[in-house]
Design brief:
Blueprint: E1 3-12, E2 22-30, E3 35-40, H1 44-50, H2 56-70, H3 84-91, E4 99-101, E5 105-109, H4 112-123
Antiparallel strand pairs: 1-2, 1-4, 1-5, 2-3
Length: 125
């Protein structure tokens, strides 16, 4: 059975004023399948090429928090307690911080885990 899904690219924007970014992950939401997942990987060398003074440890903690909210981990705060659709919309909401997401795009899939891995491979890795 093919089901619709939405996805966004997770971007690291180390110097927001310059609007340069490094793709750091993908978030996929397939509501009819009850799926919300993300794949994240920080390419430290590419980030440092854009901003050599960025705090990579803090950035890694922020990406870990993004992942924790996505998966509804206990201890990730009240946002992580929301239903998956609300968490997805919170995670992809426009913001002007060091971690941003692209516009939301749509697709159809039979397996959202495969779609997540495929999008990560094509857009990030």
């Amino acid at each position: 059975m093919r089901a619709p899904f939405d996805y966004a690219i997770v971007r690291v924007v180390p110097r927001v004023e310059r609007e340069e970014f490094v793709n750091a992950g993908v978030i996929v939401h397939a509501p009819t399948l009850g799926f919300l997942g993300c794949a994240l990987a920080l390419d430290r060398h590419r980030v440092l090429a854009l901003a050599e003074k960025v705090d990579l440890e803090a950035l890694t903690r922020h990406l870990d928090a993004f992942r924790a909210v996505c998966y509804g981990d206990q201890g990730a705060g009240s946002i992580a307690d929301l239903p998956i659709s609300e968490r997805f919309h919170w995670l992809v909401a426009p913001r002007s911080t060091i971690i941003q997401t692209s516009a939301v795009h749509g697709g159809v899939c039979s397996d959202p885990t495969f779609a997540l891995r495929d999008l990560f491979k094509k857009r990030v890795a």
